[in-house]
Amino acid sequence: MAIVYKLYNKANIFFMTSSSLYFYRQRKGSLIHTVSVKNLGASAHSHYEMEDFFEHEYPDLAHKFHQETIVSIVSYFHRLNLRDIKKEKKLYSYIKRYKDYAALNNRYKIEIFSLKYCYPIFKFIGYVGVLSRKFKQNEK
């Protein structure tokens, strides 16, 4: 995800085939299936960079990335303390200046607002999310 859109942007021609040229195999213990602060951070930065790229190269399409970028950054920030969040200058600045609330569901509107203006509520929402996921896992 982090580079494919840049490669497409540089291509002069495209070739389509019905043949499978790439075999993608997912393993149960692979990075794609591992939730960690490192992976969430990489995802948040990747989403941010992709949206920034489209904002400069294809502004009419950039809005299509807002929600995924917000979700990715918020998920990452829930695993950090406020000091570490503020160290993530690009991501934190993106959240602080974000204004396109119409594109988001109520959950993320509340999360962004609480992160901007009342960090303890943001952390509380994160704890509720952790408990909710644990309850869902126990039900299975």
In total, how many beta strands? 0
Low-confidence stretches: none
The CA-CA distance between the termini, in Å, is 31 Å
Strand fraction equals under 5%
Our count of helices gives: 8
Summarize the amount of helix as a percent range: 55-70%
Please write the string of helix (H) and strand (E) elements. HHHHHHHH
Overall geometry: globular
* Biggest sheet record: none
* Mean pLDDT across all amino acids: 87
**Class by SSE composition:** mainly alpha
| Quaternary form | single chain
Radius of gyration: 18 Å
Reconstruct the topology from this structure.
Blueprint: H1 4-10, H2 37-57, H3 59-62, H4 66-77, H5 82-87, H6 89-97, H7 106-117, H8 119-139
Helix pairs in contact: 2-4, 7-8
Can I get a quick summary?
The protein has 140 residues and is an all-alpha fold.
Structure description:
This protein has eight helices and no strands. It has 140 residues and is mainly α.
Structure keywords:
140 residues; mainly alpha; 66% helix; globular
